[in-house]
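Hi V.,

You were right to ask for the full record rather than a summary. Here it is.
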Amino acid sequence: MLYKCVRIGVDVGGTNTDAVILDSGEVVGSSKEFTTSDITTGVAKAIASAVNTAIAEGHRFKVTQVNIGTTHFVNSVIQRRNLAKVAVIRLCGPATRALPPCCDFPADLKEIILDSVHYLSGGYQFDGEVITPVEEEEIKVVIQGLAMRDIKNYVVCGVFSPINPHQEQKAGEVIMETCPGGSVTLSHRIGQLSMLERENASILNESLKPLSKQTVNAFRQALHDIGLTCPFYLTQNDGTLISAEQALEVPVSTFASGPTNSMRGAAFISGVNNGIVIDVGGTTSDVGVLVNGFPREAAARVKVGGVNTNFRMPDVLSVGLGGGSIVRPKYDTENKQLISAKVGPESVGYNLINDSRIFGGSVLTATDLAVAGCLYDLGDRSKVRDLDDDLLEMGLLEMRNKLEDCIDQVKTSSADVPVILVGGGSILIDEGEPLKGASEIIKPNLFEVANAVGAALSQVSGFVDHVTSLPHRGLTEDEGREYDAARTEALDVAKRKAIEAVVNNGGAAESVEITEVTETPLSYLPGNATRIKVKAVGDLMVHCEYSVDGVVFGEDCDQIEIDNLPVAMVQTDSAEVRRMELDYELFSVLEVAEEPYINEDGEWELSCWDIECISIGAG
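Predicted structure:
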């Protein structure tokens, strides 16, 4: 009998783990399971449940790949758990020593991660001119000393290494020759221009490598227990994939896979490629902007677990509103009248089925309000019939106001745009009522598992970010033609490199498209310097006949026994993550905006926000 070749997408959230089975753009099976404390057990159960659903509906299929969006690595940064000690080698010569590595890390995280700092010869100017040559013996002496103390995780960060990675590559070779059992992260492979943020991201990456090995092996074992021997991939911050082997080297590239998966999935199931996506989960709502089917990239440096970084991250605004958000009414102490109803940010999370009123608990949650307001039929509505009408009205209005504020913040113009509601918690919002700033409200089919659909989409990316020196445009026609020719050549070179990167990452050459081209003149550097950023995306090449002995579900296997699945050993407590987010934001783009302050003498007194804006050219 014939069988289909399908892909499985999985997304791990703080409350739920979702899985879908995708057959040529059609979802043939889906599931939603509560996230387990070890995460990998929840992944196995979600996949098994989705497979069983598809089998029960008569589908016969072989799984060609599994794509997983995981919170393992970012949770470890938030929790300060399972992080390795790292030695940082900065190739800088006499430059950059005023600001040492980890200078802006939270004190507790710095103490856990940073072993030592070493300033060595090396580095480039912005135009690729060498500051000082790399000295191999200098590197060997440092590594030998570190290896004697059993420090085997190293970061190499060279000044302007994204312009020319040769020195970092040479240093990496020397390190591995000197300490064959060691591990090294080269900063040009992690972040973009801006040395401190790139260095920070590289330090986080290297500290996570031992955990990445455990996690990848745990996922591999979990899939094997289900009967899957196909390749598996992890979803990245930009909505594309990396292989499990690549994830061993760049675990930080998966930090923001959750919001990204939701946005990619929302675009796919709604057919809308440009608009705003609101993903309402169990604990938080993530709001972002779709541009040509991909999340808009954050323009400023992004803070992860209290650390400034500059690797590619989606521009996502998070607010403490979800299905498990706790509702706290406030009454006037004298006349006992209701003043307000606060919804969130505290949440019962995956304890919703135990704690919320509709399930027999004693905690009033946002889901209770939605059920009482007849927005959704869930649990026992009779348990919330006693809710005060004013409390119900204020609570529902509070939730709408929160999302309308988010829409206003992420928009870049006053024009109304389509808004796509996804996520299990989107039942909190009545799509029949207009939202300010929304031209239309779309809640597509499969809205509750849009994140897993996004994970199932199989595309890989390539990215180029470098600075080139162009001739001045001048006033004559000849000078103008020279400038245009040089600019065109620079863009063509960047595009070719981005396309090559896609193919090297497993993409099909005929499917590659350029999705982003950005040119930024750097007026503070000499030589008419211009920063060029190019992103390319292509379909992953995966063959159905990946294994002659691959299981055909529905034929070789009737059902997967979910209760007999073993428990994984890599622990990451999602409930603890939610508690710690109160102290360390998971993702934060800059700080809270402030109005400029002009004193009595007419002088502008700079705040931290002002300095941040000026530093990125938004002053």
